[in-house]
Each structure stands twice: as structure tokens, then as C-alpha cells.
Amino acid sequence: MDDVLAVLALAAALTAAVLRDRRAPEALVALGGAAVLLLAGVLGPGAAWDEAKALGPTLALLAALLVLGDGCERAGLFDAIAARIAVASRGSGRRLLTLAVGAAAVVTAVLGLDATVVLLTPAVLVAASRARLPARPAAYACTHLANSASLLLPVSNLTNLLAFRAAHVSFARFAALMALPWLVAIAIERAALGRFFRAEVQARAPAASASAPPPLPRAPLAVLAATLAGFALSSPLGFDPAWPAAAGALVLALCVPRARGGRARGLARTIDLPLLGFVLGLGVIVRAVTAHGLGDAIGGLVPAGDGLGALLVAAAVAAVLANLLNNLPALLVLLPAAAASGPSVVLAVLIGVNAGPNLTYTGSLATLLWRRVLHERDAAPDLGAFTRLGLLTVPPILVSATVALWLALVVL
Amino acid sequence: MRVLVWITEPGWEDAVDAAALFDASETTLLCVAGAASEAPGGALTGLLGRRREPAQARLAELDAAAAARLLDAAAERLGRPARRAVADGRPEQAVVEAARDVDVLVLSRATLDPGPRSLGHAARFVVDHARSRVLLVWPGTAPSERPPPPPPHHHR
């Protein structure tokens, strides 16, 4: 009975997140589900409080990252990136794609998946339009790399933030181990996108006028550099990486003032309290799900040991689950078992949940089913073609990045 | 004579140049928007729980702006008055529908590589289903004068 209730709460939270209906905001559904589980005694208050306490710094870090990204945008960083990409493409579709891949890889690593999807993708589209080159390859580069290039740092993806705490590795070691998998993923994406968009990439346009692009704004770059240094120092000096992130966010928010009156409201919207509430509720619900038998069943899917074979299986299981459930619940469900097997398995699971979602164009199976159910009219792109693009990138990335992780573990 | 030009990237310049050869009473430049807003796809899974609507709205705006810009460039290249039309949804359906009442449809192949793959899947559908006459152009200089592949080898 407890099992059923916990799974129902999880299903309700995921459905709400996918449907995004105004009448049932996912944060309320997730927090409400968590409250029901508490009241019904499925999860003890102690366990729920533990989960909330463990998630607190992660949520603070996530909020700080959202503010940092927003500050960079308002300081003109993404406009400047767009202008530079437009000029540096020099009328070549191939160069535009390479620049978009590079920008997406760096922005995703430093500011996270959200920043690449929400802030960089429009900037790259503007750049393509300005360069009079086809926008499709660059747009897909951004959205693909937002997932697959979110391997490098604990701050690159919310999944990384959650796993980082469970893995008990330092910030610097996380980055060192994931550097090679990150580079491998980027190289595969670049090659696959170039092949998939052969026609668009061959396009040439008269090079944009030689007017020099605006310089990159200094303030956000300096703040980002200092924040990264703070991250690197956090583990040896023993403070939480949420502190440098919060400090960076604060400095940038002060450096780049908002228009008068919009300050509080704008900041609240940037921090995205509903998202934080949703993650908190989801964390508590998944804790209840895994505490009741299902945890053991799923834990059995994660191999013990950390040989290459075990890592490959862990990455594959994570990728499949991410496509069935979505990445966050997949990670939360797998994390306890992975953490028990050691940090290397946690990192392999991250490769799976981060790169896996590119496999299906519509996102997870959950999303797809609901779209079908609701007959939601989409822009309806050519699904077959985009599934081929997913097949072209995701399986090679899962295998190669996991092998790269294994090599890094052997060497470091 | 009514001429419809499907403005695609790459190849719109060549389609416009071909359309300019006709003594048309009415020329329509048609662009199907959507490159930007279709892209997020799998990334939305990564964004589970985030408010992505503003981003989607912005991408749709960029789509419209890019289409308008492309049509401006095409009209300028054509050098005579032309109707401009932006469609959305599936490109092949939009173009077949628009080609119902014209005499000639001009479109570009997707690549310079000779062979069936020089047509993208939408262009293939349009060529197969358009009611009007269809003129296909190469995107850029036509392929070199290599002879086409020999007929398939039959067993004797």
C-alpha cells in the first residue's frame, strides 16, 4: 500500500511537470504529494527532514546559478557572443556550427544546461540570421549540447549537483574525471551534427561586414572566473560551493542593476521558486519510493563494482531510465544504489542521465505519451529524422564517454 | 503567369534567380518558419520542471524575424514586386497547399551532391505531390560535368 501511494505521488509529480497545466503547478503537486506521504506515514518526518536538509545547499546553488546566468544575459554577454559568432563565421555554415558547438559546450559547463537552452540558443539563432546562414545546425547544436556537454562540472546540470553530494568527490576531482568524457561527447556531437546537416553546413553567405564585434563585457566574465575559482577552492578549504555561487550571483546582481521597480519581481522570477519547490518535493517523494522495496528492485539494476563493464551498464541503465521517466527522477531513483557502489558508478550514471535525453526528440516517453493522449498540436517537425540524429549521437556518446571516464579513473 | 518560389536555406538565391527568368504576372516568395522553435526537443527533458514557455515564445519570435529577413533578402534579389508569405507547420504541406493555384513552383535542391539525396524529404514530398509545374535548381554552381552513374548491372 505504501509502495502504491509513493509511486502514485511520483507519477502525479511527473505528470504535472510534463503537462504544465496552470491549474496544477508541478511544484504544488510535488510538494502536495510529499505532504500526503508524510501524513500517511509512508515516510517518517525524520527521513523527510534529512532529504530536505541534504537538498538545501543544492537548491541554493541552483538558484545562484540561475541568477548568475540572468546577470550575464543582462550584462550583454550573450548579445556579445551572438555578434562575435556572426562575424567569426565569415559566411561559412561549417564555421558557424563549430562556433555554436564551442559556445554551447563552454556555456553549459560553466552556467549550466538552463543557460544554454534559454539564453544561448536565441543568441545563436540571432547570430545565424545576422550571418545569413541556415540556423538549424546551430540551434540543434545548442539544444543537444545542453544535455550532452553538461558533464564537466558539478554546476553544469541539476543532476550533477544532486549527484555531486552523493559521490563524495571534490569539485576539482569531479572536473578532472569528467574532462575527457566531456571532450569526447563534444567531438561526437560536432561530427554527427556536421554529417546530419550536411546540406546546411555547406551553405556559404557573403561574409558579414567587417565592422568589429562589440567586446565581451568584462564584469560578468570576471565574476564567473572568480566564482569558478571559489568552486575549485571549496573542497580543499572545506566550504560549500553554494557560497561562492551565492557571492558571485550577489556581485553580478549589484553590478548589473535592473530597471527600477522590476528588481524584486525580476529576481524572484529568475530564482524560479516553483522549480526549487518541485525539486524538493520530488526528492522527498523519490526517497519514499526508494525506501519501500522499489529501491531494492531498481538498485539491483545498478551493477556492483567499478570495472569498465559495470560502468557501461550503469550508464546504459541510466540513459534508458532517463528516457522513460525524465532525467531528474531517473537520477534520484538510481542515486542511492550508485552511491553505494562508489563515485565512479555515480559519474557513469550521470553520463547516462545527461546524454541520454537526446535520444528521443520529444523528450522522455512520459512526455511523448502525454502529448499523444492530449493530441497536443506541435510544430510537428520530422520526427523520424530527429530520432536518427539522436541515434547518431547518443549511443556513441554513452559508450565513448564511459570508456573515457574509465580511462580517467585508471590514470587519475 | 503565377510563380511561387519556396525560399529555403541553402539555395534560395538560386531559386530566386531562376524565378526571375519567368515573365510572371505575380511572384510569391514563400518561407516556412520553424527552425528555431523545433530545436529544443530533448533539451526540454533536461529542463524538467523549469518554466520554458518564455523561451519558446522567444524562439518563435526569432523564427518569424528570421523568415522576414530571408524574405526581404529574397525580394531584394528578385528586383521586382513580389508577394511575401510566411507559413508554419510542416513545410511540405504548406508548400503543396500554396502551389495549388500557381503555374510554376521553383525550389532548390538541398545539396550539390548529385543523386536522389540531393532532395530533402520535404522537397521530395513537394515534387511528388505539387499540382503545379515544378522547377528544381541546384543550390550554387551545378555539379561538375561528371557523367551520371552507369545503368545498373544486369545479369545476363
Note down, in words, how this protein is organized:
The complex is a heterodimer of chains A (412) and B (156). Chain A is mainly α. Chain A has 20 helices and no strands. The model of chain A is unreliable at 372-380 (pLDDT under 50). Chain B is of the alpha/beta class and 156 residues long. Chain B contains 5 helices and 5 strands. Chain B has helices at residues 12-19, 43-46, 53-78, 91-98, 121-129, and strands at residues 2-6, 26-32, 83-87, 104-108, 133-137. Chain B has a 5-stranded parallel beta sheet. In chain B, α1 (12-19) runs parallel beside α3 and α4 (91-98) runs parallel beside α5. The mean pLDDT of chain B is 84. The chains are: A mainly alpha (412), B alpha/beta (156). Chains A and B meet through α6, α7, α10, α14 and α20 of A and α2 and α3 of B.
Present the secondary structure layout.
The complex is a heterodimer of chains A (412) and B (156).
Chain A: H1 2-19, H2 26-39, H3 45-74, H4 77-88, H5 93-111, H6 113-131, H7 136-148, H8 158-167, H9 171-196, H10 198-201, H11 218-237, H12 242-255, H13 263-271, H14 273-291, H15 294-299, H16 308-325, H17 327-341, H18 343-355, H19 365-374, H20 383-411
Helix pairs in contact in A: 1-2, 1-14, 1-19, 2-14, 3-8, 3-12, 3-14, 4-5, 4-6, 5-6, 5-7, 5-9, 6-7, 7-9, 8-17, 8-18, 9-20, 11-12, 14-17, 16-17, 16-18, 16-20, 17-18, 18-20
Chain B: E1 2-6, H1 12-19, E2 26-32, H2 43-46, H3 53-78, E3 83-87, H4 91-98, E4 104-108, H5 121-129, E5 133-137
Parallel strand pairs in B: 1-2, 1-4, 2-3, 4-5
Helix pairs in contact in B: 1-3, 4-5
Features:
heterodimer, A: 412 residues, mainly alpha, globular, B: globular
Summary, kept brief:
By secondary structure, chain A is mainly alpha-helical. Chain A has 20 helices and no strands.
Shape of chain B: globular
What is the average of the pLDDT values of chain B?
Answer: 84
- Sheet having the most strands of chain A: none
Derived from helix and strand composition plus strand pairing, the structural class of chain A reads: mainly alpha
Helical content of chain B stands at 25-40%
State the order of secondary-structure elements of chain A, H for helix, E for strand. Answer: HHHHHHHHHHHHHHHHHHHH
End-to-end distance of chain A: 47 Å
Biggest chain contact? A-B, 65 and 42 residues
**What is the topology, as strand order, of the major beta sheet of chain B?**
3-2-1-4-5
What is the count of β-strands of chain B? Answer: 5
Question: End-to-end distance of chain B, in Å?
Answer: 50 Å
Number of strands of chain A: 0
